[in-house]
Amino acid sequence: MKTVGETIKEIRKMKNLRQKDFSNLSQASIASIESSKRNVTIDKVQSFLDDIQMSLREFEYIRNDYCLLPSDELFYDFTSAKNSIDRISGTNLIKKIDKHLENNPKDFIAYSLRVIEDVFFKKLANRIPIK
Fold this sequence. Notes:
Blueprint: H1 4-14, H2 27-34, H3 42-52, H4 56-63, H5 70-81, H6 87-103, H7 108-127
């Protein structure tokens, strides 16, 4: 995963912007953030994102080398599976979430998905006979 500064620089260059083109960040501030000489606050990142009209989720997607973050991937899988009565895909999703939670026990999004998925499939199991 790229640093915040590397990501800001990449996006700025993609959009053909100069370091001095931002409303609430000075050229010196952008330069030090991009070179990782300065810690960046969420307020400064949000100011940058506001100027380029980009969401934090899009920023993180670029920062993660154009890949979904693990919790975003789980959320995507969850939204795809919730419209299905396929128990196998639901069971596989529960296993995937459980594995993620083993490595990231404080991931509230994954934990919430696990609880919802578990309740959903228990309700489904009570309505549809197993063959």
